[in-house]
């Protein structure tokens, strides 16, 4: 009987063993845990650009370009793009387009409503020459006017002075062409006089209309310094970085006399050639560090003789040439945008940004 029981239990034991073995096999066939997913490349920050485009037959269109690819034409005026200066209101709703004129053509100006995409001709002050047009922090249009002619001089106690509007203005005791600078604010269709000072013109370092207190209260414009523009440091002959650049760049592609300069960014130095002249001009070649090598920004695709303006906002680099613009993510060293047939490209100013300051020896814009 015991033998019969063992005989009957045998298949059950075998069956249980088979089930256990099958269970073990199923466990061993379970998929391995997935490797943690790698984080995707961080997208480049959003940005907004301002630039000009030629409009047939002889005009120019001001455009706002977003990183998403949208383009908003703001206004078209009958003026050559290369003569235009721009200004932005403090709340981002309005702007100014100023034709600086040339030869017999006097300066002209238009006030632009960004939302409506409409421009209105703005008559300039009759006195003197309007050097700068912009907005104050309340959104009023302000004109800074230089006057060097039709200024009667008088002498008293050995000092010369101008007489304007019944007031005396002592001539500055320094080299240069003395004159007056005036500030006006546009209100209810009229220009209201704000301020007048005696100042110097036509010499290096002369303040001109920047001597006016009002000049320091203007919001963003292309008349004044650009806070996004990179400051340059000269690399003297024999400098280690200059020697590295000379070793890497065998042929600059032009013969412009000058020197290498560096610009500090949060992502490391950027190098360019600066051509000597009355207004030193940044040019190609451009180089920055990628994996311990000095390389040109990828797919730059600009003529080697191109003059450029270099601007940085956050870790976005804007390379603006005479008829083109490139945007780079300086963190990844990748090109994120390329624009052709555009002029005066710059980042759209942040709202309520005061930019006026005493002039410095700035690099010429392309």
The Cα radius of gyration reads 33 Å
Helix content: under 10%
Specify the biggest β-sheet. Answer: 5 strands, antiparallel
What would you call the structural class?
A: mainly beta
The count of domains is 2
Number of helices: 2
Strand order of the largest sheet: 15-16-17-18-19
- The average pLDDT value, as a whole number, equals 85
Percent of sequence in beta strands: 35-45%
Secondary-structure element sequence?
Answer: HEEEEEEEEEEEEEEEHEEEEEEEEE
Apparent shape: globular
Q: Using DSSP, what is the number of strands? A: 24
Uncertain runs are 1-39, 356-366
Explained architecture:
The chain has 366 residues and is mainly β. It is built from two helices and 24 strands. It has two domains: 48-217, no CATH class; 233-347, no CATH class. The protein has helices at residues 2-28, 240-248; strands at 48-55, 59-66, 71-77, 84-88, 94-99, 108-113, 118-122, 129-135, 141-147, 153-156, 159-164, 167-170, 177-187, 190-201, 233-234, 258-265, 268-275, 281-290, 293-295, 309-313, 316-320, 324-329, 334-340, 343-347. Strand 8 (129-135) and strand 9 form a beta hairpin. The longest helix has 27 residues, at 2-28. It is globular. It comes from Myxococcus fulvus (strain ATCC BAA-855 / HW-1). This is Lipoprotein.
């Amino acid at each position: 009987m015991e033998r019969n029981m063992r005989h009957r239990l045998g298949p059950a034991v075998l069956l249980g063993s088979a089930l256990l073995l099958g269970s073990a096999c199923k466990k061993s066939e379970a998929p391995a845990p997935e490797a943690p997913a790698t984080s995707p490349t961080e997208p480049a920050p959003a940005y907004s650009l301002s630039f000009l485009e030629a409009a047939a037959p002889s005009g120019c269109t001001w455009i706002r370009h977003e990183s998403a690819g949208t383009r908003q034409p703001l206004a078209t005026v009958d003026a050559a793009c290369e003569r235009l200066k721009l200004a932005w209101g403090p709340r981002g709703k309005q702007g100014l387009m100023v034709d600086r004129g040339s030869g017999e053509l006097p300066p002209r100006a238009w006030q632009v409503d960004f939302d409506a995409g409409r421009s209105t001709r703005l008559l300039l002050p009759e006195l003197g020459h309007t050097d700068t047009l912009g907005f104050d922090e309340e959104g009023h249009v302000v004109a800074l006017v230089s006057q060097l002619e039709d200024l009667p001089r008088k002498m008293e106690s050995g000092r010369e002075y101008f007489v304007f509007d019944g007031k005396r203005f002592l001539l500055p005791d320094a080299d240069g062409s003395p004159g007056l600078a005036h500030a006006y604010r546009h209100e209810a269709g009229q220009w209201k006089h704000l301020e007048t000072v005696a100042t110097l013109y036509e010499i290096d370092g002369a303040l001109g209309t920047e001597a006016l207190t009002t000049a320091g209260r203007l919001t963003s414009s292309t008349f004044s310094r650009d806070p996004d523009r990179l400051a340059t440091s000269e690399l003297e002959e024999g400098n280690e970085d200059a020697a590295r650049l000379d070793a890497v760049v065998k042929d600059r592609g032009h013969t412009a006399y000058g020197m290498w300069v560096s610009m500090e960014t949060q992502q490391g130095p950027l190098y360019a050639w600066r051509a000597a002249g009355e207004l030193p001009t940044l040019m190609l070649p451009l180089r920055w560090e990628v994996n311990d090598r000095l390389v040109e920004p990828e797919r730059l695709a600009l003529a080697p003789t191109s003059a450029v303006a270099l601007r940085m906002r956050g870790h976005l680099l804007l390379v603006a040439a005479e008829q083109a613009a490139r945007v780079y993510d300086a963190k990844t060293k990748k090109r994120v945008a390329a624009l052709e047939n555009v002029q005066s490209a710059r980042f759209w100013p942040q709202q309520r940004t005061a930019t006026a300051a005493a002039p410095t020896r700035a690099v010429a814009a392309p």
